[in-house]
Design goal:
single chain; 3% strand; two-stranded parallel ribbon; two-stranded antiparallel sheet; mainly alpha
């Protein structure tokens, strides 16, 4: 890799992260709790696996009419999104268990539902978590050329209407993911800050093998088993993906592409203004922290502040940790972004889409563009 370097200040004068880590450690030690999965997380895992593949199995019985099968296809989509939100996400971060073999096995659920865990660890665990909301490096700001998610991104005339079409467009995200996105990332010469990224033969073999497994259970077996017309299968398959894609797309956007979080750029030397932990606080937002159903279903994705600061802690603990993080941040004069409800976060994202859809000259409140000539970057 031949690239420049993004750096964060090594010392935080506020001592925010030192105090926070001490308090979180005390929380687990004083209660004799493991920061990994507990019985509630295991029960959720079993429930989501049962929901997803139980509905899939009922479809394959061929004992139901087209409308019930369509309903079950939507249930499969809900289950697939839930497995991605909670089980696979935690496992791929090494947060589910102290045993790497357990994390690897549950992380393979990500491959089983059509994505690729290896490339996700690079684009999400490393790039997104390290360089959150930094234009030109955080790939989560570049979901589609049709959607402008950063004030630094190039504006196109079609963006005027993105507040009308972006959220429905998210429904296509998993279709794009399972058929195009992973292959595209494997073929890119430059991946975020990584220049001339090389993927091992084993990683390529796993990609092709797991994709074949996914296409087998989701497409080939149903076409061989089900007594339905091909177009009926297509409707059910697309309905499943539209459900999963819409849920995943919306939830992922509500942590960073809403009002409040910043989109900071490095200076001409590649240096960021704030220490990494403070940067995460400034670029991330929680939502719906007191909604028990939401907390259960989306895991740590509505507690993105806590997740970014403690990615190896199981998401089942984030509701409790959020109170500690909020109190510590306020004591140190650091902003704690949040939206009280899921609906409020969606509305904020909609307003953000609308504001970013205006031509830059019509949006004087937009942040200044990035410094010209900023270097290519690699992880610090």
């Amino acid at each position: 890799m031949t690239a420049g370097r993004i750096t964060f200040p090594q010392r935080d004068p506020t001592r925010f992260i030192e105090d926070l880590r001490a308090r979180v450690a005390d929380y687990f030690e004083s209660r004799r709790l493991s920061p990994k999965a507990n019985a509630a997380m295991i029960a959720k895992t079993i429930t989501l696996l049962g929901l997803t593949f139980g509905a899939y199995g009922l479809i394959l019985t061929n004992r139901l009419g087209p409308w019930p099968m369509l309903g079950l296809a939507i249930v499969v989509g809900v289950g697939v999104a839930g497995l991605g939100f909670s089980v696979a996400h935690d496992a791929l971060h090494g947060a589910y268990s102290h045993d790497a073999r357990v994390n690897a096995a549950l992380g393979f659920v990500f491959n089983l539902i059509g994505a690729n865990g290896y490339i996700w660890k690079i684009t999400h665990n490393v790039i997104h978590h390290t360089y959150t909301n930094i234009p030109g490096i955080d790939g989560d700001l570049e979901v589609s050329p049709l959607v402008r998610l950063s004030p630094h991104a190039a504006w196109k005339p079609i963006h005027r209407w993105q507040h009308l079409y972006a959220i429905p467009l998210y429904g296509l995200s998993t279709l794009f993911w399972v058929f195009i996105k992973d292959y595209k990332y494997f073929l890119k010469r430059h991946l975020g800050p990584y220049h001339h990224k090389h993927h091992s033969a084993g990683a390529v073999a796993t990609l092709l093998g797991s994709k074949a497994l996914y296409y087998g259970w989701s497409i080939v077996i149903p076409l061989l088993v089900l007594d339905v017309a091909w177009w009926q299968f297509v409707i059910g398959y697309v309905a499943m993906h539209l459900t999963a894609g819409l849920l995943l797309g919306i939830v992922f956007q509500l942590a960073h592409s809403v009002e409040g979080p910043a989109f900071p750029s490095p200076d001409e030397r590649g240096a960021m203004e704030h220490a990494w932990a403070v940067h995460e606080m400034e670029t991330t937002s929680d939502f719906g922290r007191h909604n028990r159903l939401l907390n259960w279903y989306v895991g740590g994705l509505n507690f993105q502040i806590e997740h970014h600061l403690f990615p190896k802690v199981c998401s089942i603990h984030y509701p409790a940790l959020s109170a500690i993080v909020e109190a510590t941040a306020r004591e140190h004069g650091i902003v704690y972004h949040e939206h009280a409800t899921f609906r409020a976060a969606v509305r904020s994202h909609y307003r953000m889409l609308r504001r970013l859809g205006r031509p830059p000259e019509a949006a004087p409140d937009a942040p200044a563009p990035p410094v010209p000539g900023a270097p290519a970057m690699r992880p610090a």
